[in-house]
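Troubleshooting: if your tokenizer reports a length mismatch, compare your output against this known-good record of 208 residues.
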Amino acid sequence: MIGKLSGILDSAGENYVILDVGGVGYQIFCSNSTLSNCGQKGDTLSLLIDTHVAETFIHLYGFMSASEQEWFRLLTSVQGVGAKAGMAILAACPPQQLGFAIASGDKPAIQRADGVGPKLAARILTELKDKAAKMDLSAKPKGVSVAAVSAPSNENAGADQDAVSALINLGYQRSDAYAAVVQAREKADNDNLEVGEMIRLALQELSL
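Known-good structure output:
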């Protein structure tokens, strides 16, 4: 089983790269987040790898971060979510947003992914809510640009993560802390709230 590949970036397509490893070119399917960080042709590149084997093909899926790889594995553990759908979900809702979306039951955020309908989105939320609450989402991929969803944006993710951590330290469950921060962010008039203010607003949500 291939766990990691390191080599030279030979070329890149819409959803894959060709990685030259000792003269052998491996086609590796990647999310938008990973593709945006692969560099230019001729650059050295190292990717974490998941291998999916079927009767007619062997596909490699590459990840720049362990966090994204873990999310991919969680998503594809849900019945009906194949590798293609898992990558589509990560493209529509990157790791630093996905935990908030699942913890708060944000079905529209999951349905933004190509090929994910209401029933599958509901199953993902149901099956992964407890698992998502245990994930460490502090690692944030660089260079991700997606349309805003109800989960925190990249610019706010740091403050929101700090607020979640503070609420957990106060004794709240991680899933409840995530949901409270999401709700507080949605209701806030100011998009640039500091951590202290975010904690105060989230505590108000928890007291409702």
